[in-house]
Amino acid sequence: MIFSREAGYAIRALIKLAEKPRNQFVSAKALAQELHISESFLSKILQKLVKQGWLHSVRGAKGGVAYAIDPESLSLLDVVLAVDGDALFTQCILGLPECHSNNGPCVIHEEWAPLRDALWNLLKKRTIADFSKNPKGVSTN
Fold first, then answer.
1. Who's near 9: CB < 8 A, 6+ residues apart?
2. Which residues, in sequence order, are CB contacts of 42 under 8 Å at separation 6+?
3. In angstroms, what CA-CA distances link 83 with 4, 52, 55, 79, 106?
4. What does each C-alpha distance from 123 to 58, 78, 95, 107, 119 come to in angstroms?
5. pLDDT digits (tens), the chain, 141 positions
6. Those residues with Cβ within 8 angstroms of residue 85's Cβ, 6 or more apart along the chain or in another chain
7. Please, what are the domains in the chain?
8. What pLDDT is stored for residue 141 in this prediction?
9. DSSP the chain
10. b/e string for 33-65 if b means 16 or more Cβ within 10 A?
11. Could you give the CA distance from residue 13 to residue 29 in angstroms, rounded to a whole number?
């Protein structure tokens, strides 16, 4: 996997939520069960997504999370950057700190650059809603 497990879970959770009616609140427990992931780990991820302003959170028996924005406006790139940061796109793919220094790029730098740019563009143009409309596009299980 190119992204962290946390980013992957965030994407899966956002897709699953986008499949629900817009104002339907879903508990972290129910969402974790649907996705077959740890409730405590998912709760931490959902907190980040609430802080981003993408989800509303309501406490209580009928509480949970629901979209605060239209999933059409949320790109996969937005999610990856919010959860993992931009290291995949700004740092050496081999993890060499001197890759971007005066010593010159690493041996794979020139080959990775166009792939990195293509990945950025792909993630930027695909939205969470794209996947919720086409369940064959991604499995949330």
1. 35, 37, 41, 42, 45
2. 9, 13, 28, 31, 32, 35
3. 8, 10, 14, 6, 27
4. 30, 8, 22, 26, 6
5. 688 999 999 999 999 999 998 888 999 999 999 999 999 999 999 999 999 999 999 998 888 999 999 999 999 999 999 999 998 888 888 888 888 766 788 899 889 889 999 999 999 999 999 998 765 545 444
6. none
7. 5-134 (1.10.10.10)
8. 47
9. --S-HHHHHHHHHHHHHHTS-TT--B-HHHHHHHHTS-HHHHHHHHHHHHHTTSEEEE-STT-EEEESS-GGG-BHHHHHHHHH-SHHHHS-TT--GGGGSTT---TTHHHHHHHHHHHHHHHHH-BHHHHHH-GGG----
10. ebbebeeeebeebbeebeebebbebeeeeeebb
11. 12
Tokens 């649907």 sit at which residue?
Answer: 34
Q: How long is the chain?
A: 141
The residue type found at 3 is F
